[in-house]
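Notebook, p. 212. Picked up where the previous page left off. The plan for this session was modest: take the two constructs that came back from the sequencing core last week, fold each one, and keep the raw output in the notebook itself so nobody has to go hunting through shared drives later. Recording the first one now, exactly as returned: residue sequence, then the structure token string.
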Amino acid sequence: MENALYTTLNRQSGLMAEMRAVANNIANLSTTGFRKEGVIFAEHVADLGREEPSLSMAAAEGRLVSLAQGTLVKTGGTFDLAIEGEGFFQIDTPEGPRLTRAGAFTSSAEGELVTADGHRLLDLGGAPVFVPLDAGTVAVAPDGTVSADGAPVAQIGLFQPVDPTGLLHSGGTRLEVRGGIEPIESGVVFQGFLENSNVNSVTEIARMIEVQHAYEMGQGFLDSEDQRIRAVIQTLGRS
């Protein structure tokens, strides 16, 4: 019965990790460019010897970031950019380059496009995207080409991870990449639009209820086993 307890405790730990992921998704329903996250479970089987059946335990091994498209909302902002299809913007942060789908950029005092946190948007070559401060009309083409008064001045880079499972939330809408990135040409940039979170409120709330019920069932089993063990100890202590 000890094996059943260990298996249940391990399952409870994994369910808690999934509950935290779902709660974070729900909290970011209205966060521009947010990518929902799920938990990856792995099964570990241990050989207990010839006289015992093998022991199977599931563990929450990591997180998986969803690449599903969010809806695009028109804002009309000159530096509000959204991606339709594959790809991410690359921004420069103190922790290193990060990917994001949150395209609400502004022009800094130096003319560089930056996020609300001041992180610079990068071009295909990894350099900051610069737009002259005195430009009258700024246009961004679907391929990411930035033009000022009709003259091209920059090329916004679109990138994707080499390994889609290598994405990891590193704060807000910023994504760290493990395994490298590569430029792509399939994504389309829309100027004057922003992409909503790709979290579906109905499915996430349903999943939260499902996980909560599963956790309560596991907790009920642990409580029953605790009472049984206490009763056995008390009986043996009186004999």
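Okay, moving on. Second construct, recorded in the same format:
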Amino acid sequence: MGVNRTDRLYAIVEELRATAPGRRSARALAERFEVSVRTIERDVNALQQAGVPIYADTGRGGGYALDKTRTLPPMNFTPSEAVAVGIALSRTGEAPFARSARTALLKIVAAMSAADGAEARRLAERIQFLVPESPDDRASVPAVVEEAVATRQVIRLAYVDRNGAETDRDVEPVAFVSGVRDWYLIGWCRLREGPRLFRVDRIRRAALLEETAPSRDFHDMAPRIPDLVAHALELG
């Protein structure tokens, strides 16, 4: 049953889902997928890093198990719907929480039936993206900035302005703002004592401070840009 690694990762999740709350040993999984125990251990570690709730019990009778209380039930996504979600998530690029988007897609496909998941992967192979040969040198949103917005924690930035000058600033984060091309962090800059937009690819370093930022209303701080109106992301 030789399969490529991507298919094997999905198949491991399906195998553990089918046996939950029971466990499957690394050796049993290795025999099932005709790979080494070490390969299974690496695969499970990759899934855990992606946020799939797999836990391991050591000792006699131990093995890997999937925590059903933290997984999605079987989903009615059609293969084309799953691929449509994948296309949308692939466009996140340097957007905030882009890494989380990739792990979310893994969870969605893993929650589909085995047949639909396999068909979705086959359809995805027929979707190609044209990209520049040289990688985009714009930095992705640092994970620490994402955490600052998510937890409303004051953040210390080393920021380079449009003139190339670098300053250290303590910022009370409020929101991410998407422009036509770039992503910005809007926050209260304590250095400038006012609201400021920080282009995320100009953030050189970032560190969380042990201080919760005061609550600030986005619309009181949002810049007034002619012909553009900010609107929030909708999740339903």
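Notes on construct two before I forget. The beta strands are 54-57, 63-66, 153-160, 166-178, 183-189, 194-199, 203-212.
Flagging for discussion at group meeting.
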